[in-house]
């Protein structure tokens, strides 16, 4: 009988949180199945570290510069509208959107995709109804996880592969903190126990579990709207005057600002706030990215295949300790070297991720990654034209920024067709070739 593949995407689980539970015995079924398999300890996510930004890299194999939707919320300069995944009737947008790209799962036997519109071309598709009706924000979300996982042995009678996107971990982290994550993962562990021990499936089942980005705890809000207004900026979606700003912020740990003003002026204001982790803009004259925060200021630019981090004063990304013997003021490394060198730092791989985000035409003129622990208030839009900001809800955990636990996720895989291998790190975009090679192998 043919190989059977179960791919589980866990939304928003950091490497740190996952392996803490994995190694402490809280997930006994998962541990017994995956130990000795293929493990990527740190999967380096992208910026903004949120699902909408991650998916095209994983499932279409394209670069961030090529994606049509840079994040779940951004500003369309031509339409002069806010584009938001959760705008008014999200289901409407899910239907409207045409996918231009072919997903990595297409063309490999009969597939069922639950909750992941990016891979619906692979076969039968069930939309994420459990997210749209808000179920995932409460503990009821895990009922859907149970229903799907428990039914996989029957579904495998019809399908060769099943891709299931579990949102309850991310959403319960937002709403309940680490207790919520434990609820979601323990439930998954219990349900996977039934499948792993299923006699019919044994010897042909391969399982992948991975996460697209991480999450980290929050302390409070940073009212970026107020700061901009106090400095004479006018928040609008029509950028006519110098001081007009279209602000994209939505409770996640990043923000984009679109403006006609010299971005240097806004960078100078925001970099004085400790709640701002990194503020950056692209200097169009020389294609460099200027970054700043209370720790200093630096310039990021490309020199052939190398990405350079040149400090102008201080060390905004706090990398100095990782470059002891070298001339620290001007570091030039390849992408892989940047991961290796900065993996243990507060901002792993941020030099490259910041450079890449500004290559996308829809990136703000200014991008902000908020300090670990702070995020702006919730904003929501109506038909892309009206934007409201509300003091609630408040999250316990959050992501979207460049902080390490938001950036570092993981992958574990095991089964008949999976070779034992341990990687200290890989890039999120490497998942595309990992899945492609796997499906080619079992074809
Ligand atoms: Zn989330």
Folded structure, characterized:
The chain is an alpha/beta fold. It has two domains: 4-62 and 101-217 and 404-442, Alkaline Phosphatase, subunit A (3-Layer(aba) Sandwich), CATH 3.40.720; 220-394, no CATH class. Helices cover 29% and strands 29% of the residues. It has 14 helices and 25 strands. The chain has helices spanning 15-23, 28-34, 51-60, 90-96, 129-132, 141-155, 168-176, 178-196, 224-230, 263-270, 335-342, 350-357, 404-407, 430-442; strands spanning 4-10, 38-44, 73-76, 81-84, 111-114, 124-126, 161-166, 205-211, 216-217, 220-221, 234-235, 244-249, 254-259, 276-283, 288-293, 296-303, 306-314, 330-333, 366-370, 374-375, 378-382, 386-390, 397-398, 408-415, 421-427. The protein has a nine-stranded mixed beta sheet with strand order 11-12-13-19-14-15-16-17-18, sandwiched between helices. An eight-stranded mixed beta sheet has the order 6-5-7-1-8-24-2-25. Helix 2 packs across helix 8 (178-196), helix 6 (141-155) runs parallel beside helix 8 and helix 7 (168-176) runs antiparallel to helix 8 (178-196). The longest helix has 19 residues, at 178-196. The radius of gyration is 22 Å and the shape is globular. The site of zinc ion has 4 residues, from helix 7.
Task: Describe the structure using short key phrases.
9-stranded mixed β-sheet; alpha/beta; binds zinc ion; 8-stranded mixed β-sheet; globular; 2 domains; 29% helix; 443 residues
């Amino acid at each position: 009988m043919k190989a059977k593949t179960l791919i589980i995407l866990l939304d928003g689980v950091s490497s740190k949180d996952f392996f803490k539970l994995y190694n402490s015995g809280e997930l006994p079924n998962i541990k017994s199945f995956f130990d000795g398999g293929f493990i990527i300890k740190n999967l380096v996510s992208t910026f903004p570290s949120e699902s909408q930004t991650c998916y095209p890299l994983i499932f279409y194999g394209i670069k961030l510069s090529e994606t049509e939707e840079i994040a779940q919320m951004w500003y369309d300069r031509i339409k002069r509208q806010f584009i938001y995944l959760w705008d008014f009737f999200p289901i409407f947008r899910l239907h409207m959107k045409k996918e231009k790209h072919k997903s990595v799962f297409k063309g490999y036997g009969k597939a069922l995709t639950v909750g992941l519109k990016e891979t619906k071309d692979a076969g039968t598709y069930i939309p994420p109804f459990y997210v749209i009706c808000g179920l995932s924000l409460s503990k009821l979300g895990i009922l859907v996880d149970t229903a799907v996982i428990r039914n996989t042995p029957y579904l495998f009678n019809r399908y060769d592969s099943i891709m299931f996107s579990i949102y309850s971990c991310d959403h319960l982290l937002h709403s309940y903190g680490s207790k919520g994550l434990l609820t979601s993962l323990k439930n998954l562990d219990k349900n996977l126990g039934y499948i792993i021990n299923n006699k019919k499936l044994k010897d042909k089942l391969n399982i992948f579990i991975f996460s697209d980005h991480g999450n980290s705890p929050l302390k409070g809000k940073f009212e970026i709207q107020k700061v901009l207004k106090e400095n004479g900026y006018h928040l609008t979606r029509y950028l006519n005057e110098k001081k007009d700003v279209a602000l994209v912020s939505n409770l996640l740990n990043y923000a984009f600002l679109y403006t006609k003003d010299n971005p240097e002026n806004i960078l100078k204001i925001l970099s004085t706030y400790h709640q701002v982790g990194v503020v950056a803009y692209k200097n169009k004259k020389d294609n460099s990215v200027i970054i700043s925060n209370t720790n200093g200021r630096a310039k990021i630019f490309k020199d052939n295949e190398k990405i350079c981090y040149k400090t102008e004063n201080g060390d905004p990304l706090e990398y100095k300790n990782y470059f002891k013997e070298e001339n620290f003021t001007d570091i030039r490394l390849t992408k892989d070297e940047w991961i290796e060198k900065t993996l243990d730092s507060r901002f792993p791989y941020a030099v490259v991720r910041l450079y890449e985000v500004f290559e996308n035409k829809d990136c703000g003129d200014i991008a902000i990654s908020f300090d670990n622990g702070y995020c702006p208030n919730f904003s929501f839009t109506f038909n892309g034209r009206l934007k409201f900001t509300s003091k609630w809800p408040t999250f316990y955990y959050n992501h979207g920024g460049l902080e390490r636990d938001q950036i570092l996720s993981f992958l574990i895989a095991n089964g008949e067709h999976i070779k034992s291998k341990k990687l200290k790190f890989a890039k999120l975009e490497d998942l595309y070739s990992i899945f492609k090679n796997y499906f080619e192998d079992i074809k």
